[in-house]
């Protein structure tokens, strides 16, 4: 299969390259400097040159707080870019695999969000990702959108890397304990995307549409930090874990409001044989890599 990957230097982009490497698929991976998804001419040239069987969009504007003051650029990357990719996918009659976020929800739920639940993003980033979902659904028929959450990996900036850095700098740390979600390893997400690509290649009919994909057991940022430090200490990644203090969101104000509860149900994805991955096991793997 000829797979076109955008955003190759991001967490998902790098993990996707890792999971495709041992397969015999042909991967054509592009960084933002090589393929800007908001540039129609660039997308057109790359797509007609490569003639992919499938497009995987790992490109996004992911700076949730910075997004609040860069609204135009955020919507360009997270809504217009996916729309352009979707239009070219439709033109070639090939699928687009796109990734969205739990931040499309307002977090007022008390049980896991289903794909059909009402969206109500609380910030510019979430609104731009929702606009991207809608633009993709209008522009092409063959699409899979995977909403994911709390992405971590051995690459780039993420909560695990931040905790590792802070563990070396501080003896005490305050972490928000009233926001709940499901940490997701980018490598597990990449594997799930590859599995979906391979199932598509096996033949139609195919269940196009919107799905949720995230780690299995909900936790708070405080709970996630506690697990990270316990594992990191046991694995010898850090010498000593800092004292963890649980605080409320009010005590840690951020420019963009986060959903209080963004746990998502991954049930719908079982039709592809994809289950919610154990983020705890994947965390061991990532910490081992960071050692
Ligand atoms: N990170 C999370 O916690 C999280 C949570 C929920 C959902 N998601 C979603 O999951 C997906 C993957 O996220 P991630 O964490 O892997 O993101 P990431 O690490 O921030 O990577 C995003 C990549 O997109 C590239 N990019 C930005 N603008 C672009 C453009 N105009 N054209 C082409 N590439 C562009 C960036 O390149 P440059 O660095 O060169 O700008 C970067 O390499 C995204 O759709 C994101 O919205 C992420």
From TrEMBL:
Keywords: NADP, Oxidoreductase. Residues 1-290 form the RmlD-like substrate binding domain. This is dTDP-4-dehydrorhamnose reductase. The keyword Oxidoreductase applies. It holds the Pfam family RmlD_sub_bind. The keyword Cell membrane does not apply. Catalyzes the reduction of dTDP-6-deoxy-L-lyxo-4-hexulose to yield dTDP-L-rhamnose. Its cofactor is Mg(2+). GO terms for cellular component: cytosol. PANTHER family: DTDP-4-DEHYDRORHAMNOSE REDUCTASE, METHIONINE ADENOSYLTRANSFERASE 2 SUBUNIT BETA. It catalyses: dTDP-beta-L-rhamnose + NADP(+) = dTDP-4-dehydro-beta-L-rhamnose + NADPH + H(+). Belongs to the dTDP-4-dehydrorhamnose reductase family. SUPFAM superfamilies: NAD(P)-binding Rossmann-fold domains. It comes from the Bacteria.
């Amino acid at each position: 299969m000829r797979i076109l990957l955008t955003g190759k230097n991001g967490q998902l982009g790098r993990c996707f390259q890792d999971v495709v490497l041992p397969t015999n698929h042909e991967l054509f991976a592009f960084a933002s400097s090589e393929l800007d998804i908001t540039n129609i001419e660039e997308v057109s040239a790359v797509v007609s040159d490569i003639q992919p069987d499938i497009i995987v969009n790992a490109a996004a504007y992911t700076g949730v707080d910075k997004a609040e003051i860069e609204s135009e650029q955020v919507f360009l990357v997270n809504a217009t870019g996916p729309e352009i990719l979707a239009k070219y996918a439709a033109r070639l009659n090939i699928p687009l695999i796109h990734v969205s976020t739990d931040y499309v929800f307002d977090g007022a739920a008390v049980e896991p969000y289903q794909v059909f639940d009402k969206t109500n993003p609380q910030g510019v980033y979430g609104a731009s990702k929702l606009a991207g979902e809608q633009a993709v659904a209008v522009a092409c028929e063959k699409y899979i959108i995977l909403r994911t959450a709390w992405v971590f990996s051995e690459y780039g900036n993420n909560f695990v890397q931040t905790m590792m850095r802070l563990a070396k700098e501080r003896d005490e740390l305050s972490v928000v304990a009233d926001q709940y979600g499901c940490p997701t390893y980018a490598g597990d997400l990449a594997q799930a995307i590859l599995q979906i690509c391979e199932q598509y290649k096996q033949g139609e009919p195919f269940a196009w549409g919107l799905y949720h994909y995230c780690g299995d057991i909900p936790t708070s940022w405080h709970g996630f930090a506690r697990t990270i430090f316990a594992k990191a200490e046991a694995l010898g990644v850090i010498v000593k874990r800092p004292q963890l203090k649980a605080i409320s969101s009010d005590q840690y104000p951020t420019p963009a409001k986060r959903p209080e509860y963004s746990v998502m149900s991954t049930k719908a994805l079982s039709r592809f044989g994809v289950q919610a991955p154990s983020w705890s096991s994947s965390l061991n793997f990532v910490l081992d890599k960071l050692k």
